[in-house]
Amino acid sequence: MIETYWLEPSDERWHGYLQGLEHDIYHLPEYVRISAEQTGAEARAFIARDGDALFFVPLLLRPLPEALGAPATWRDATTPYGYPCPLFSSTSADTTRRLSLGGVHLRAARERDIVSVFCRLHPLLSSPTDALAEIGHLRHHGQTVYIDTGLDARDAPVRASRK
Fold first, then answer.
1. pLDDT of the residue at 158
2. Does residue 163 carry a pLDDT above 60?
3. 160 pLDDT more than 60
4. pTM here?
5. pLDDT tens digits for 24-46?
6. What is the 3 state secondary structure string of the chain?
């Protein structure tokens, strides 16, 4: 049975779930909380867990503009600015398991009157684009170029990643 959680940044489990996942600063509750404060949103992390398989995504929940005439309970969700991509544990490596966990996320969002979810992918962390394309629409915006600033300028290789 798949368990789901919507965590607030103050929930100690947030850091606990991240411990077993390759992640970046953009996934930390402190970063998501500050992003929410800056945009007038609610900071949350959504977790779906099926045994040892895990799906994790940090989100900002925002009310829809009044001009749309939508019910007041309807909201949209977006990942904070930066690269806070959805994360999957290594034990959810097969596409079928990822689709199942991602589908649970969409159903849980609908139950909370979330009408759209926008996620940014991380150019350096692995993103299962095959599974994500099955549950949503992927849009490629070009390459991201990065330089390892810890290396001497003469030795630093330049790499590009397309996400």
1. 60
2. no
3. no
4. 0.81
5. 999 999 999 999 999 999 999 99
6. CCEEEEECCCCCHHHHHHHCCCCCHHHCHHHHHHHHHHHCCEEEEEEEEECCEEEEEEEEEEECCHHHCCCCCCEEEECCCCCCCCEECHHHCCHHHHHHHHHHHHHHHHHCCEEEEECCCCCCCCCCHHHHHHHCCCCCCCEEEEECCCCCCCCCCEEEEEC
- Which tops the pLDDT comparison, 142 or 155? 142
Residue 139 dihedral angles phi and psi, to the nearest 5°? -125, 120
**162 within 8 A of 143, measured Cβ to Cβ:** yes
CA distance to 122, 123, 148, 155, per residue, from 143 (Å):
11, 8, 16, 22
Quote the tokens at residue 151.
């290396």
